[in-house]
Write a structure and sequence with these properties.
alpha+beta; 9 strands; globular; disordered N terminus; binds ligand MTE; binds molybdenum atom
Amino acid sequence: MIIRKSPRLVAIDGDAVVKEALRRIELPTRRKFLQRSLTLGGLSLLTGCAIVDEDSVENALMKVSRFNDKVQGWLFDPRQLAPSYPESMITRPFPFNAYYREDEIRQVDADSYRLEVTGMVADKHAWTLAELQALPQTDQVTRHICVEGWSAIGKWGGVRFSDFLARVGADTSAKYVGFQCSDDYYTSIDMPTALHPQTLLTLTYDGAQLPPKYGFPMKLRMPTKLGYKNPKHIQAIFVTNTYPGGYWEDQGYNWFGGS
Ligand SMILES: Nc1nc2c(c(=O)[nH]1)N[C@H]1C(S)=C(S)[C@@H](COP(=O)(O)O)O[C@H]1N2
Ligand SMILES: [Mo]
């Protein structure tokens, strides 16, 4: 279940609150289930809290969404691979998307760039681009799915993230890996997804250095997760047991964000 909150939402009242709550629930099959249970009373029962105003609707939906994170975590199969595609199926041009427009893309300087790695890791040294490029690389052609209603097939290359985590001596019993980006974007993922064989710390797109619009110098690419979970322009990576949230997640997008 994906619960979305429009960032442009303005104040709403009365019955509109329930309507709005329903509108924020995307997947049709889940919607059916929720239409049966999602009355104010139903939500109260589901979450064990009194629902009296639009803030508590929001809180209740968040609780349902966090519960859904747990279920997605239980259902996630670390060996199940997302589909990959022949290069002939790559979408050209591949779409750009960010919380800002294409003319505001962040320019990151390659020479002064350092990837910070902190939290529950043994080796906290900051990585240059050359050091990252010197690690064993792999590539894959997979489908990127954005909740805004588009999907596209692309080819990304880079370092298997599980190799990188092993290399920095990450404590893989930690719950989360968080990402801070060079724009104001941030997100975080569950450890099983971080260790999934198709989760790549990518440095290239379609065989060439990752261009700024696709997240230079680096995008974490996970074909098992929706677009907003795939951070571009990664500046810092941290391993933690403290829930880090995310840019869209903190505004109501489902945190697990499986695709
Ligand atoms: N740093 C950063 N990463 C980001 C975003 C962003 O705004 N900033 N947007 C996310 C969303 S919603 C999508 S769909 C994809 C878009 O990636 P693309 O431009 O390569 O298609 O990047 C994700 N990662
Ligand atoms: Mo997206």
